[in-house]
Amino acid sequence: MQTIGTHMSIAKGLDKAAENAAGMGADTMQIFSRNPRGSSYKDYTKEEISRFQKIREENGMKTVLAHAPYTLNACAADESIRDFAVRTMTEKTYEFACTVIREDIRRMDELKIENLVFHPGSHTGIGVQAGIKNIIAGLDQALTGEEHIMVLLETMSGKGTEIGSCFEELKEIKPDALIISDPGVFTIAKEVCPEIEIHISTQANNVNYADYLFWQRLGAKRVVSARELSVKEIKEIRANIPDDLEIETFVHGAMCISYSGRCLLSNYFTGRDANLGACTHPCRWKYHIVEESRPGEYLPIEENERGTYIFNSKDLCMIEHIPDLVDAGIDSFKIEGRMKTALYVADVARTYRQAIDDYFESPKLYESKKEYYMEEISKCTYRQFTTGFFYGPTTHETQIYDNNTYVRGYVFLGIIRDIDKEGYALIEQKNKFCVGDEIEIMKPSGENVMVKVLDMKNEKGEKVESCPHPGELVRILLSEKPEIMNLIRVKEESK
């Protein structure tokens, strides 16, 4: 079904814009997140937001978009132009942070607006590669993984100076590899940038060695196996394909109701595409049955008084089975991290790295540390654990029927971005903490160091006792000096 809307002015208020759009018969609309030719914006009151949402609901208004100002040019060569979108953290360290995008993501998220659109800008004077690098750096700073809004890049391909092409720009950026599932896209990639390795996505449903050989003949270097395969089946594939054709397999993370990844539920219900990494996990929601002759009468599928979550799989975890994965001939272990925090990805990847290294050093060492691995993995958000299809078909025991919540052991506080001469560490705060709190530094080596927050300063250099607002930049003095890119966290029960 088509969705028709218009770009609406918010000069007379957010609710008035929604009212005018509804009066035109529009079932969607786009607004500017702030002054389109400047930087000023208005913070909306709870009452305004409530009226806006009510009008949307009453008129069946679907996905709403917000457009960032035209003056934003995050990839400009001239820093004076880029200052609007970029913040300089210290005199010596230039931290590329898309301030406008970060602020607008927060503000539009509060409004429950689903999409934020911005123009990547012109790469004149620095070239495509540098422009793309600037944009990526800005988005890395702006996006936390906690927001619900989707950021869209409105490209202007054909203009020549705008970031907007596809494989031609990838050719310049020179990534290590491309992950592709569609044969047509594969063909284009081979024509435009044949020097870049191509890996085949799990979404291609690679379930046997004939699939693997097919993709190799076309020029693929690596194939990601379907999630439905067992250890025995992967081992059989390895025995029937050349040694230089690599096997990649999911070993940890959320399991979809569409296991090989071709799930359309999220896109259908919310407009957020699971195949683009923005899944809203509708398979975890509570569902009821409606019988055709009794519309509006919702019949629960009950396991107990709280209902059931019929599609709600436990999380995959194979860290206790590294020897079997290695014996099967898997070259690369894949960790599912869509919509997860940096803490989750860092902790899980670090622990698997330790387990793999320990096993190759000594199988006995690996066996002796299994309890430690599980303890570390369990510090992340997770939804109980299963071994999926690795040891045969799944059963009812792989599902969670009574709730859709995660277990969360630790809270992510931020990443160390810089350390000044006085030893203060710069972070973009993700969750509140205070002076005097005991927190933990995560090091890449696997070491976790408990430290105390001795002092804290805001962006203006003023002493503060806490940082209550997610996304704010603070400098903290810890009892032990961290290193740049260390993560900091705190136990959930202490917050």
Walk me through what this model shows.
- There is one protein chain.
- With 495 residues, the protein is an alpha/beta fold.
- Mean pLDDT is 79; it is low at 76-97.
- It is 28% helix and 19% strand.
- The protein is globular, with a radius of gyration of 25 Å.
- Strands 6, 7, 8, 9, 12, 13 and 14 form a 7-stranded mixed beta sheet that branches. The protein has a 6-stranded antiparallel beta barrel with strand order 15-16-19-18-17-20.
- The protein folds into 3 domains: 5-165, TIM Barrel, CATH 3.20.20.150; 201-283 and 309-398, no CATH class; 410-494, Elongation Factor Tu (Ef-tu), domain 3 (Beta Barrel), CATH 2.40.30.
- Helix 4 crosses helix 5 (127-142) and helix 12 packs antiparallel against helix 14 (370-377).
